[in-house]
Amino acid sequence: MILCIKSLRYIVVVTILAFGFTGLAQEKTVNDGVFTEAQVSAGQVVYDAQCKTCHNMRFYRDTLRSWNNQPLLYLWESIMGTMPADNPGSLMFEEYTDVIAYILSENGFPTGESELDPDNGMDTIAIVAP
Ligand code: HEC
Asked: Taking the model in full, what pTM does it have?
């Protein structure tokens, strides 16, 4: 009986590990139309009000380069946790998402049909250098 529970635990751990790894597999990149035109327009408004004063687009281009190959969700989390530097975390989730759509668009990445959504697949979208 004890043996049984032990092997069951083993199976659970192995399954979690296996799913963990597939979860990290990146199926898309920011080149695949992963945000909408509407998100870009909304993001520009937020950007102009909250981000423009401290960084220019050149800064974001360099940031995207340094995040090359990382999941887009990690950048979203990083920005949400630290920006705006004078008031971190002060925006709504949606505003952070829209700002990222705007920054990607300004760096030449295309809009598409699907909305960028931190709760839905953003961990499988890879950043590529602009
Ligand atoms: C009050 C000034 C200020 C404002 C406003 C501000 N930032 Fe920043 N930001 C900084 C500073 C300072 C750093 C860290 C130093 C650096 O890398 O230049 C930084 C770093 C960053 C980074 C690099 C993070 C990384 O891990 O590579 C990103 C991306 C960023 N900011 C995005 C934003 C966005 C998006 C907004 C608007 C929501 C914003 N910032 C608003 C000052 C600001």
From this structure: 0.84
Domain, as residue range, for 90? 28-126
How many independent structural domains does the chain possess? Answer: 1
Out of 76, 82, 93, 116, mutate this one to test ligand 1's pocket (max ligand atoms within 8 Å of CB): namely 82
Convert the pLDDT of each residue in 8-45 to its tens digit.
555 555 554 455 444 455 689 999 999 999 999 999 99
Q: Spell out the alpha helix ranges (H) of 1-130.
A: 2-24, 37-50, 57-66, 72-82, 93-106
Give yes or no for residue 54 CB within 6 A of ligand 1.
yes
Residue 20 lies in a domain: no
Ligand 1: centre distance to CA 79 (Å)? 7
Owner of token pair 């360099």: 62
Q: Is residue 97 part of a domain?
A: yes
